[in-house]
Amino acid sequence: MEHLNGKVAVVTGGASGIGRAVALALAAESMKVVVADIEQPPLDATVAEIESAGGVAVGVVCDVSDWESVDALRARCTEEFGLADVVMNNAGVAGGASISEVDLKAWEWTLAVNLWGVIYGVKAFLPALIERGEGHVINTASIAGHLTSTGMGAYNTSKHAVVGFSETLQQEMLEGDTGVGVTCLCPGFVATNIINSERNRQERYRDPGPDLDLDAGDDLDGTALGDTSSAIADLYVAQMDPARVAEQVVDAIKTNQFWLFTDSLADGMIRERHADIERRATPTKRTHLVELMMLKGDS
To answer: Could you confirm whether 120 is annotated as catalytic?
Structure first.
């Protein structure tokens, strides 16, 4: 899609981080933007910022883990601006704790948002894109969709699934000569608020138990995050500006680029994993992604 002027975009998770930056960037390309997010106040603030810059946008509160909510988002988009031309399935959460410790509700929550949110977004918007023979879908995966750091089982699983889903979708769009482009966005470390995503965990995905104080560093899995979480949060603040990622996303839409890695920091680790697979080798202990982020912070 070389020309975006006057077309319609939908961005989920659009009120913060990468989603917000992409919504602003697409509006700057003179697209009409539907900003979807589960949090109302930052959603309103993002729409206001777009409008104050002369752009056109509408905010829609949407829970991407719920099909009816995503289908309502599609209907609202059509009502406000017409059929979507660009759909970015970006909403995501960070599901922590080791596989042996993470509770089932945390699994359900992480997969519901990170994977089913993408599935629902494609299910809702893809038929109209195919019917018109043009458009672009961006699915946000992660470098964690190509690696397997410990303590991130639910998150890794969801992002590996998004990678496989996106590759399959891209091949089907080519096979059918549909004219619909696909981008699999695999961010490295970006200055977002994903580490604090527990604040938005829906009640149905919470494990019944004692009341927890999230402001005090309690994790809904029952794992105390404490100083480690605070240190990681500080590291995140110093990572890549989401606006740089947004520039890459806009370029990927225009050039029909499938793989979009935001930096090369994890390239060596990804090559190591691929080499193990090719050699049918049992993996040895690898550098953790958090260690990689710390090394970057020290450089």
So the answer is: no
Structural domains of the chain in order of their starting residue, each with its CATH number: 8-298 (3.40.50.720)
Residue type, 58: V
Q: Which one is catalytic: 120, 155, 205, 236?
A: 155
Q: Which amino acid is at 172?
A: E
Among 176, 157, 129, 138, which Cα is nearest to 18's?
138
**Token pair of 91, please?**
């909403």
What distance lies between CA 281 and its chain's CA centroid? 31
Amino acid at 54: G
Closest by alpha carbon to 17, among 227, 173, 195? Answer: 195
Write the DSSP assignment of 154-218 as a string of letters: HHHHHHHHHHHHHHHHHHHHHHTT--EEEEEEE--SBS-SGGGGGGG--GGGSPP-S---GGGTB
pLDDT digits 0-9 by tens, 84-108: 999 999 999 987 788 999 999 999 9
> In this predicted structure, what is the pLDDT of residue 209?
56
Give the residue among 147, 142, 158 at the shortest CA–CA distance from 272: 147
Cα-based distances in Å from 131 to 84, 134, 177, 182, 251: 12, 8, 12, 16, 24
